[in-house]
Amino acid sequence: MTHASTLAPSAVTHPHAEAGRRTRRVPGPAAALALFTAARLTGVALLALTAEVTGQQPLALLGRSWDSLWYLGIAAHGYGRTVRFAPDIVHSDLAFFPLYPALVRAVTTVTPLGGGAAGLVVSWTAAAVAAWGIYAVGRLLHGRAVATALVVLWGLLPHSIVLSMGYTEPVLTAFAAWALHAVLRGHWRWAGALAALAGLSRPNGFAVAAAVLVTAAWTVWRARDRVSHRLWTGVALAPLGWVSYVAWVGARTGDPLRGYFAVQRLWGSRFDFGRGSLRFVRHLLLHGDRLVFPMTLVIVAAAVVLYALLLADRAPLPLLVYAGVLLLIALGGSGFFESKPRFLLPAFPLLLPLAAALVRTARARPVHATVVVAALAGLSYAYGAYLVVLARTPL
Fold it and tell me: SS3 of 333, please?
């Protein structure tokens, strides 16, 4: 049983209202997925053109850049690689969660594809599944038009080129979107199982389990003794993936409780309540830096504003918890400052206020909405090509 505050408005729609929507030809999931695919293919095409002009290989850039190489190494050889740069800078592949490399290994086992191509197959498939899940959440909450706008906006984020690369954000978002949809529908066992898989995909995948657990706690508090056993099953499953991997790394390093976090600290990643980020922002404001860094600052600041709007719109509890935990990790974590926008890619609920506003604008002033979408697309395509081909900065 799920309390009404965690759910979308009733899915029961008056037949005349539904007929009115049909006459307006509001797009369904197939149209939303087609728009998302077109957006991403256009971005990849521009990146490929930029790569060719600069004498680089587009597929190598997409499938074998930065963290992708670590995941491909795990897929091919298992865990065990360590690179020592200094006594206090030791990069171990234990920092990377296992689900994505396991999927890549599965694809290379059953197909003739190499690791890089298999990684792209996994990422592109996951991005499509994620877009479908995002549409499902948006439709449940606000109807088809807002759901379509939500998918399009997600596909046109400045860092959306990552959705076309051999990275784990598409995999996390796919499991997260469908887990949140399951929570909103009260399907607790599905929510718990999907949250467990999300927790195996990335360190910040715990945000999905947090959404399930907090919503379950709220439901139990409201329902008292009328809670289904399915809820308890979902609660037990939700953190299992994340906790299992962290515990496994702890056992492997000989420190069951702190081993995984020690590995992350040696990468320079730790949760310090934002002190490291504030120091870098101070450096950025006083001394300036490459385009990637001020752009990161703008994107993170925009995410904070969007979360405030999500709160003001009284979004359902699981969406607030999920997006809030992802935002908290991005703000409070130190390490690679330029990676923060990528960490926020799975936080699609932040785009709900923008999607609703875009639909209202499209109905009142279609030309204005077209200009906005075109501008977002131009920024996304140009910045994506710059990030991957020209910036040479870790994503």
Answer: strand
Q: What percent of the chain has pLDDT over 90?
A: 75
Alpha-carbon span 236 to 255, nearest angstrom: 24
Q: How far is CA 150 from its chain centroid?
A: 14
Q: Which two tokens stand for residue 179?
A: 């887990």
SS3 letters across 70-108: HHHHHHHHCCCCEEEEECCEEEEHHHCCCHHHHHHHHHH
Strand partners, 10: none
Q: How far apart are CA 160 and CA 341, in angstroms?
A: 10
CA angle 139, 38, 355 (to 5 degrees): 35
User: Which tokens sit at 5?
Assistant: 């505050």
Calpha distance 219→167 (Å, rounded): 35
Please tell me what DSSP assigns to residue 6: G
Residue 177 tokens, joined? 């979107």
**Taking a C-beta distance cutoff of 8 angstroms, is the pair 206, 239 a contact?**
yes
Rounded mean pLDDT, 37-49: 97
DSSP code per residue over 339-389:
GHHHHHTT-GGGGHHHHHHHHHHHHH-HHHHHHHHHHHHHHHHHHHHIIII
Return the ∠ at Cα 303 (arms to 179 and 217), rounded to 5°.
40
Q: Which residues share a beta bridge with 139?
A: none
Contacts of 267 (CB under 8 A, 6+ apart): 91, 92, 95, 335
SS3 assignment, position 305: helix
pLDDT, position 19: 42
Reported as a pLDDT band with limits 50, 70 and 90, residue 386 is very high
Which tokens in the block code for residue 35?
Answer: 């728009």
Q: Measure Cα distances from 69 to 76, 94, 352, 353 in Å.
A: 10, 14, 34, 36
pTM of the entire structure? Answer: 0.90
